[in-house]
Amino acid sequence: MITLEDMEGFFRESMELDEYQKRAESFAVYPKQYSTIYPSLGLVGEAGEVAEKVKKWLRDGYIEKEEVAKELGDVLWYLAVLSRDLGYPLSDIARMNLDKLSSRKKRGKLKGSGDNR
Ligand SMILES: [Mg+2]
Questions:
Q1: Ligand 1 geometric centre to CA of 79 (Å)
Q2: How does pLDDT run across 11-32, given as a tens digit for each residue?
């Protein structure tokens, strides 16, 4: 059962995500004609930087967690501005994802493949 505290927590977290998105937008300086494509490419690039740092864990035997965290922040920034370019508040993206995962869990479909299972 969803309690009033759950709802308050959800709305508080939504505001934090949307506030982050608004603040992130102030750093977006790419030309308008490249909206959506620019942050999509940036998102993939930064995800690659995360993978690169984690890969070095295999080579060097230790992980620089703070460096990975910084790259995750870059991923978050591109996610926020890409969502903005597509017309979605970041809180909507988070809610839609949790709804999808919750539905899959209820139907025993967390494992497997397919975007719309
Ligand atoms: Mg980076």
A1: 13
A2: 667 779 999 999 999 999 999 9
* Separation of CA 96 and ligand 1 centre (Å): 26
Tell me the pTM: 0.84
Q: Is 103 within the bounds of a domain? A: no
Q: What are 14-20's contacts with CB under 8 Å, separation 24+?
A: 14/89, 14/91, 14/94, 14/95, 15/91, 17/89, 17/90, 17/91, 17/94, 18/89, 18/90, 18/91, 20/76, 20/80, 20/90
Does some domain include residue 79?
yes
- The 10s digit of each residue's pLDDT in 40-90 is 999 999 999 999 999 999 999 999 999 999 999 999 999 999 999 999 999
**Residue 99 within a domain:** no
